[in-house]
Amino acid sequence: MTAPYRDILQEIRLAFPQPVSDPIHDSYFVHSIMRALDQVDALKSHLPILGALVPGDFAEARKAALPEGTSSVEAVTSDLVGYLRGMTIFGHPRTQQNVVPPPTIPSLIGAMLAALHNPNVAWDEYSRLVALAEVEAAGITARLVGYDPEQASGVFTFGGTGTTLYGVKIGLEKACPGTMQKGHSEDAVLIVSEAGHYCAANIAGWLGLGTDNLITVPTTEENEIDLDHLGRAAREALASGKRIAAIIATLGTTDAFGLDDLQAIAALRDSLVEEFRLPYSPHVHADAVIGWAWSVFGSYDFEGNPLGFRPRTVRALAGACRRIRHLSLADSLGVDFHKTGFAPYVSSLVLVRDGQDLQLVTRRPEQMPYLYHFGDHRPGMYTLETSRAGTGPLAALANYRLFGERGLQAVLGHLVEMAQLLREHLEGHEGTTVLNRDNFGTVTLFRAYPPGVDTFAIKRREFEDPAGRDSLLAGNDFNRRVFDYVHSEAMEGRGVVISSTDCYRRTAYGEPIVALKSYILSPFVDEGDIEEVVARLLEARERIGGSG
Ligand SMILES: *Cc1c(COP(=O)(O)O)cnc(C)c1O
Q: Which DSSP letter does residue 191 get?
């Protein structure tokens, strides 16, 4: 008689892909995936969400417990699909919400293949050619941003935050050598712009620099780091005996696509080294997790415009390129394929211009007795992570192969074209005003005003003159209500899902400016969807304005 557990085991074995080819079981596997996709498809309607919004009961969720018996592939599949209810369909033409792209089919297949055979790219022994895929994806990116691919080196890590963490950690080792061993006692500062990502604060905290040592520099009206302020802040820090762990240049801020002048920042850094006779060169990290993709326009013939973009689009693309083309001046930089690269989460790459820099964070083999005794490729010697998935590298590589340079140009160009069109429409109405008019990205920030307000004069008064404070605050409130209206309409299938920000930037006298935000990242967005945004806004303005 066989042990009872054997029956259970037999059932469970069927829930794994078979280790030895078994065509009948293989088709069961494929079929199971298709059933999952069919069920997801059944959730689609004309709305930009899957199924309906179901509020999550988080208190109830806490009470979940492990079931006693086994279940089936079919039952688990239906159960899991249920968790997608209410999800925004990021590829939907009526979704203009945030910097979340729809992933392509090849990138999904890349992620699935990696999940299926579970390579760990810490070590080629555990990932074989998937480790090579990571190196290729890094090499393509290095060449794209203008690094010497022979010199540069990179690894995929846990998000854009991870990429900046690597950059700052390497910079900290340069500024305060031996920190890896001794910890650090010296005061080191980290510098970023006010419009830079809040992950800088997190990183300062987690690395032990302390958030008190994070210097946030004001930005210009274009949301670029103010270079005079930066110079002053850096000199002040150095003069008081502090060291600069890193300067983060943001190329593509999250909310407004501000692009820091990396060329000027690198030049400033060089002059600081001379001026203060520094024994190290302050590390410049480019947080380009959003802007990196614009590198594909580095070779674009803007005059000839072979892809036929509209003049406003060409201007915006060339404007972005003017900053992005200097990415190679950064000592390290971060790329999110899960943002402007149309890959699923998490697919982030940190690149260092000089691969030798990674030596600064490399552990000694004795510290990892059970790993890395042989093999040719061992990024696990210096990565923060131990296990690293092959999903990010395969998804990224899939999209590089799928799009090529021209495909990325076409997709990004279209998104910029749609954003420009939206701005044109918004500027064509007296009730709406665009806040980031001269910006080059795919995000548009705007405000609506009640009927009867002179929107031509109001921007200046509200943003610069403290006497405009009451009007600004009333406008903030008004735009929150416009947002609520537009959002609930979109959830009913009328209009477009946009988002809002509580602080697009501060006024000259320090008040936060609330703005409505359209973030276009779906290749499916077209002119009609743009007109719909404006129509809904004007409607909201009438309704809310009318009711006081
Ligand atoms: C999104 C974003 C980050 C954080 O990246 P994650 O991938 O979400 O960790 C950092 N910097 C900028 C500019 C971003 O837009």
A: E
Ligand 1 pocket, mutate which of 336, 346, 348 (most atoms under 8 A from CB): 336
Q: Is 539 helix (H, G, I), strand (E, B) or coil?
A: helix
Backbone conformation region of residue 366, classed left if phi is above 0, alpha if psi is from -120 to 50, else beta: alpha
Ligand 1 pocket check for 336: Cβ under 6 Å? yes
3-state secondary structure of 481: helix
The rounded distance, in Å, linking the Cα atoms of 129 and 166 is 24
Collapse the DSSP code of 349 into the 3-class scheme (helix H, G, I; strand E, B; otherwise coil) and give the result: strand
Calpha distance 78→30 (Å, rounded): 16
Span 69-95, mean pLDDT?
97
Question: What tokens does 81 get?
Answer: 């699909």
Q: Whats the size of the chain, residue-wise?
A: 548
> Which amino acid appears at position 12 of this protein?
I
Burial code (b: 16+ CB inside 10 Å, e: under 16) for 132-158 equals ebbbbbbbbbbebbbbebeebbbbbbb
> Phi/psi of residue 75, each to 5°?
-65, -40
Looking at per-residue pLDDT, the higher value among 319 and 453 belongs to 319
C-alpha to C-alpha distance for 390 and 392, rounded to whole angstroms? 6
Could you report the per-residue pLDDT of 427-455, keeping only the tens digit for each? 998 889 999 988 999 999 999 998 888 88
- Note the pLDDT tens digit of each residue in 276-301: 999 999 999 999 999 999 999 999 99
Q: Which segment, 185-199, 341-355, 420-434, is predicted with the most confidence on average? A: 341-355
pLDDT tens track for 241-271: 999 999 999 999 988 899 999 999 999 999 9
| Among the listed residues 391, 402, 404, the one whose alpha carbon sits nearest the alpha carbon of residue 133 | 391
Region at 159 (left for phi over 0; alpha for psi -120 to 50; beta for the rest): left
Ligand 1 atom with minimal separation from the 345 CA: 7
256, 294 in Cβ contact below 8 A? no
pLDDT band at 376 (very low <50, low <70, confident <90, very high): confident
Q: Is 394 exposed, middle or buried, given 0-12, 13-18 or 19+ CB atoms closer than 10 A?
A: buried
Distance 254 CA to ligand 1 centre (A): 7
| Short-list 413, 450, 421, CA closest to 518 | 421
Those residues with Cβ within 8 angstroms of residue 144's Cβ, 6 or more apart along the chain or in another chain: 292, 295, 296, 298
Q: Is residue 278 within 8 Å of residue 272, measured between CB atoms?
A: yes
Q: Is 106 helix (H, G, I), strand (E, B) or coil?
A: helix
Enter the tokens of residue 80.
């899991």
| 287 C-beta closer than 6 A to ligand 1 | yes
